[in-house]
């Protein structure tokens, strides 16, 4: 399966309308089933329910790819992103960032 992850901050004015169409278009082109994970949390914390569910599915082998709209949807600090990237590589998960042009290939 593919995990599509969307995140917006807590502000009421923030919505996923920028992310959703691009991720939906990408998801339709995938041969695998797509699971959606969503959060309405600040990117400054990695303690988010949707992200926790995504990582749990990654760890148990349910997801083979993770697709995000932009890197800042995953995290805001280099430390957090580096740790997350290392875990994805360890789990042999491909990371795709649509706006950053990152089609990461797992080793």
Layout of secondary structure:
Elements: E1 2-8, H1 19-28, E2 34-40, H2 49-59, E3 65-68, H3 78-90, E4 94-97, E5 102-103
Parallel strand pairs: 1-2, 1-3, 3-4
Antiparallel strand pairs: 4-5
Helix content: 25-40%
The largest sheet, given as strand count, sense and whether it forms a barrel, is: 5 strands, mixed
Shape: globular
Overall pLDDT confidence: 85
H/E element string?
EHEHEHEE
Cα distance, first to last residue? 18 Å
Q: What's the arrangement of strands in the largest beta sheet?
A: 2-1-3-4-5
Low-confidence stretches: none
User: Do you know the CATH topology?
Assistant: Rossmann fold
User: Which structural class should the secondary elements be placed in?
Assistant: alpha/beta
Name of the CATH homologous superfamily: Resolvase, N-terminal catalytic domain
| CA-atom Rg in angstroms | 13 Å
Q: Report strand %.
A: 15-25%
Tell me the count of domains.
1
The tally of helices reads 3
